[in-house]
Amino acid sequence: EGELKYVIVNESLTGKDQTSSSEFMVRLVLRSQESFDRLKMFLPSFVEAVPSVKKISFNLRPIHSAVFEGEKELHVYGDRFFCYRLGADYIYLTSRSFSQVNAQIATSLYRYVADLIEQYPGENVLDLYCGSGGFSFFLYNSFSTTTSYCTMRFI
């Protein structure tokens, strides 16, 4: 019966070698808007204590269901986009972007699928329900055309 339903954390490594450090995007999924102002009061001390958090948002999900997030999103700290490292490259996510929460696992998954798909010759790839486009990102150099399509609203 509390206000906090979920905490969703995305991690991204910032360096290009074994000495990489992590940066985080944090989303708090809340039952009601009632706690938004109270939680915003704690942001300065939270960010000071955890400087690796680069983006924070609140999401409102008042009803109980299998869906983790609601339609209303409030950006409360950091840049609008979160720099998310995939291998040696980066994509930029908003709070509502669908992505794997662990960049290292996501990179391994995307590379594995890309290696499988590259075994089949062709010119075009159509990535439906692509979320943030991670699979397409790893395929774009191997095909003439890579098209990503998603029906979700991200911003």
Structure report:
- The protein has 155 residues and is an alpha/beta fold.
- It has 3 helices and 8 strands, in the order ββαββββαβαβ.
- The radius of gyration is 18 Å and the shape is globular.
- The mean pLDDT is 84.
Reconstruct the topology from this structure:
Elements: E1 4-13, E2 22-30, H1 36-49, E3 53-60, E4 72-78, E5 82-86, E6 89-93, H2 103-117, E7 124-128, H3 134-139, E8 145-149
Parallel strand pairs: 2-3, 7-8
Antiparallel strand pairs: 1-2, 3-4, 5-6
Q: Which characteristics define this entry?
A:
8 strands, two-stranded antiparallel sheet, alpha/beta, 155 residues, 35% strand
Number of helices, where a helix is a run of at least 4 consecutive DSSP H or I residues: 3
Beta content comes to 25-35%
Tell me which oligomeric state these chains represent.
Answer: single chain
The ordered H/E elements are EEHEEEEHEHE
Tally the beta strands.
8
Distance from N terminus to C terminus (CA atoms, Å) equals 29 Å
Look at the structure and give the mean pLDDT: 84
Rg for CA atoms: 18 Å
Shape: globular
Give the % helix: 10-25%
Low-confidence stretches: none
